[in-house]
Design brief:
Layout lengths: L10 E5 L3 H11 L6 E5 L8 H4 L24 H9 L1 H4 L14 H18 L2 E4 L3 E7 L2 E6 L4 E3 L1 E4 L21 E2 L17 E4 L3 H12 L6 E5 L27 H17 L4 H10 L1 H6 L3 H19 L4 H13 L2 E13 L4 E7 L6 E5 L1 E4 L8 H4 L1 H8 L19 E3 L5 E7 L5 H4 L5 H19 L2 H7 L1
Helix pairs in contact: 1-5, 1-15, 6-11
Amino acid sequence: MNALPPRPRHHVVILGGGFTGAAVAWHLARQSSRPLITVIEPRAFLGGGLAYSSEEPSHRVNVPASRMSLSPDEPEHFWRWLAHDGEAERDPDAVWSNGDIFPRRQVFGRYVAEHLGPYIETGAIRHVRDHASGVKRDGGGWIVVTSGQPIAADMVVLAMTHPSPDVPAALGPIADAGGFVADVYRADALDSIAPQASVLIVGSGLTSADTVAELDRRGHRGRILAVSRHGLRSRGHPQMRGEPFGDFTSRPATTSLALLERVRSTLAAADTDGVNWQSVFDQLRLQGPAIWSALALDERTRLVRRLRAFWDVHRFRIAPQVEAVLDRRHAEGTFDNIAASLVASNDDGDDLAVTLRRRGQRQFETMHFDAVINTTGPAHGKALHANPALRSLADAGLIRIDRHGLGIETAPDSRAVGPEGKPLDGLFVAGPLARGTFGELMGLPEVARHAQTVASQVEAQLGAPSAIAVAR
């Protein structure tokens, strides 16, 4: 092993430079303590990550620009940057009929990168283009192992990107077939799909919708079938946005069933008052942490297992430009989505045969496709095994999966929970990997708020006497 360089005082290392890691770094660089910040991210720039580095023109943000921001206290931060940058004039399709702006995802990534730029230029933030292969304790601090020189740190923030999706077991027999796309996030994933190819998309959420939009933009006109367990398609935004509606915190529900009944009664009240259902779910999102904390652990698990699919399609809405493609393709008869479970698959040589069972039916049905695309979403429950750095911490018994299978078990102050259930000094979890504790941590506004909170908690611990002693 290479000799370790002297540890700089108050050195914070952030693993992952997508939006979560970049937001933590940006907020931390603006704190009064001004620690040295190192972000380990293999991509060429910080802030893009998996979501916002896509160069595909049809991939758009799924939240109006006026509600996306690095700074939670300035909701229109990104919107003002867009107006100054002139992106809306260069991409008139970004402006929807109601005036909301849904720019391409890479534009938001550029916005984040530009705001980190000055801190990188001054050396306050250092970008190491590498992968972290391990993290281990070193006295009162930490050592991050990379392909280059190991990095000594006083604090480590785990802000990794979403892990690659799992391939459903029923599709194992065709996993190596030429027409099978295991990970649609690859830049060249759809290159080999012919314009008239028949396509099966496994999954019907945001990624599935984006895949249909991308295929359509590439000139694909063949048959597309999306299949998922519930057959639920992601919903769209209202023509006119309203204020959040409902109250879920004055007398918070303590069971998943009671919460479901509260949501249903609130939706009925909204309909009576002429309020759209999206306003109810906006309130649920805003009050999410309080709703989640009021539920016992078993009730949280029950909520995730039984209602997560229904929550996802209402909460994570697709951009109207993408919704328009799905609606048009459906009207043309070239796109449909069904509720079914996968049973088996095989490569017939000429095409891919997939056997499934439609929801509510007993008989099996075998369909043939030229291509099968997996869009089942990130395998968050296997993050500790898929990522080498997380796996090293898990193997050492320092972190563990949360009981809901959503990510890393995290304390209320965002520190990772270590041996004997105690939070670990100097090891923080930011973003979606912490949602087992905080509930709603997938939408960008919530991730931005949590990144700001983590930065404040890191600074507070750096200012503690024990941390200063370690740094010296």
